[in-house]
Amino acid sequence: MTIQSHSGSLTKDQVEFYNEEGYLVLPKLLTHDELAPAREAMNHKVNEIADELFAAGLITDKLEHRPFKYRLAELFQDLTAEDFLKHGRSWRDRIPGYFHLMSSPKILDAVESLIGGELFSNPVYNVRPKIPKVAAGAVPWHQDKSYWPDANSNPVITVWIPLVDANEINGCLHIKPKTHRKRLLEWHSEQLTGTGYTALREDQLGKTKTVVLPVPEGSAILFNDRALHMSTPNLSDEVRWSVDLRYQPTDQDPMPNHGAGFLARSYKYPEKVATLEDWLAERPERA
Ligand SMILES: O=C(O)CCC(=O)C(=O)O
């Protein structure tokens, strides 16, 4: 589905690229400082995990002074993948810093260029603490729509943002351009890592060349929920921190079975745009 829009922050060329290729990279869209609230939310969770590991006798040092980029990896360096996966391969906590990020005007301005200014933040957002040596950090080839096959929501746009530089060593995103026009392919549930990721077989990937997308911290990679994409394992000694956020027009299925999304921007009903308090209370609109 191609929607033409002349509002928002993207240039005509960027909108055309997105519509043609099914993805768009916005290098360094957000600054290190603008990512601070999200980083703080992640640190909050890492503190909780360190407390639990310490209380369980699994670690003797909570590594409070280690940098954000390394601490979670080092907390688990002598533990097993199972120990890590008890805390989830990705996180969806309601911590204020995430709402701050999902409401970022820079993100909303970019998405507005693609689907207009009535924007709903889809309930499916993930914080990905991809640590080394945990196979489940690598995500097999898939289409995001395989996670909501019955939802009558189109388009859903993923905005993927790393909180560290993402590269081929720590497992950046890979995408197959122009695959966004494909129908939803039959997927299977990945068994190797026990995570239940939806996955496609090699023979379903077609001949389209893969584009590898290393990007610096704060960049945004926007793609459509039918675009084929994956990410490789983390072979570094750092955490490949990222978030994937999702947006759709307000007249689409809000997918309540995935949780409560929220009205992120509206020119028609600005008074209904959700506040932090609404989001924390799982209200999609302002009370
Ligand atoms: O962050 C990753 O490694 C994979 C992200 C992904 O597959 C997605 O956002 O749909």
TrEMBL record:
GO function terms (MF aspect): 2-oxoglutarate-dependent dioxygenase activity; iron ion binding
One Pfam family, short name: PhyH
Keyword Cell membrane in annotation: no
Gene3D superfamilies, sorted: q2cbj1_9rhob like domain
InterPro entries listed in its UniProt record: Phytyl_CoA_dOase-like
Keyword terms, alphabetized: Dioxygenase, Oxidoreductase
Entry superkingdom: Bacteria
Name of this chain's protein: Phytanoyl-CoA dioxygenase family protein
Upper classification of the organism: Bacteria, Bacillati, Bacillota, Bacilli, Bacillales
